[in-house]
Amino acid sequence: MGRTKNGQRIGHTDSLPSPTAITATAGANRSLANIGLLLFALALAADLIFIAIDTAGWRLLTKPLIIPGMVLYFTATIGAANGFQQFILPALLFSWLGDVLLLFEDRAPLFFLLGLGAFLTAHIFYCLFLWRIWKTERIQLHKMFGLGVLVYYAGLLLLLWPHLGDLKIPVAVYGAVISGMLLLALHTVLLRHKTARLLMPGAVLFVLSDSVLATARFMQPISFSGIIVMLTYGGAQLLLVTGALAYIRSKEISKNGIAVQ
Q1: What is the CA radius of gyration of the chain?
Q2: Contact yes or no for 48/235 (Cβ under 8 A)
Q3: In which band, very low, low, confident or very high, does the pLDDT at 14 lie, cut at 50, 70 and 90?
Q4: For residue 199, what pLDDT is reported?
């Protein structure tokens, strides 16, 4: 950038957005993010009500709207293209696909398998995101975390195994992947960025949701299992996405030389 002899600025800065435009864009993004959170909360609340009053047909309208709210919240908050989108957005999109497919599991067993595959893929993308954090932060495996997750996985599989029938392998693979996500997420409590520690309870809620679902489906009915599954699932997605956004923001601030707690 330079100046003429009359003091007028010349150069490429003329094409930069004004502070007013930047503020307006930020405000619009915040509004979209709030709309996304509102859509998520309303859809989840309505879905829980329809479960409670046993009107499953209405869930065709509410359940498919839960994850789109999270997608809007995430994309509006993260703003410009970011490398982490390649993990979080596919995780959310495959979660949405799983939600929709499982709505029709009573019509044909194939829908359950397809839904299981969709959520398996979602967990893989969450694992990839968490693994990137591991590599960036140089996290080392803690044996106690590993042992705890192994005990959970082996114990749940041992309980379910006699009741799984032809689904033994698919459920075992799914359990291994979600256990891997849990193991990766547990270590985020060690991060110096406290805001990113939402990832761990998010993963725990996801595991709890799937564990209740599997127990109620394959072993014996659990009172209010539908409400428990969706409430923990919704909380899991909210915490994972919010934790991911917090971690991404902390890295961006650190890059600019500002300490993040």
Answers
A1: 22
A2: no
A3: very low
A4: 93
158-210 pLDDT, tens per residue? Answer: 999 999 999 999 999 999 999 999 999 999 888 777 666 799 999 999 999 99
Residue 90: what residue type? P
| Structure token digits, residue 25 | 């864009």
**Is the pLDDT confidence value at 24 over 50?**
no
Asked whether the CA dihedral 232, 235, 237, 240 is positive or negative, the reply is negative
**Gap between the Cα atoms of 26 and 31, Å rounded:** 9
* Domain range annotation of the chain: 85-255
Task: Please write the tens of the pLDDT for every residue from 239-251.
Answer: 999 999 988 887 7
Report the alpha-carbon distance of residue 131 to residue 133 in Å, rounded. 5
Which ranges of 79-224 would DSSP assign to H, the alpha helix? 85-102, 109-137, 143-160, 168-186, 199-218
Tokens of 229: 């599954």
All residues at 6 or more sequence positions from 119 whose CB lies less than 8 Å from its CB, including other chains:
94, 95, 98, 174, 210
Regarding pTM above 0.90, the answer is no
Quick one: average pLDDT of 244-259?
69
CB 247 within 8 A of CB 133: yes
The size of the chain, in residues, is 261
- Distance separating alpha carbons of residues 137 and 192, to the nearest angstrom: 9
Alpha-carbon distance 170 to 117, whole Å? 8
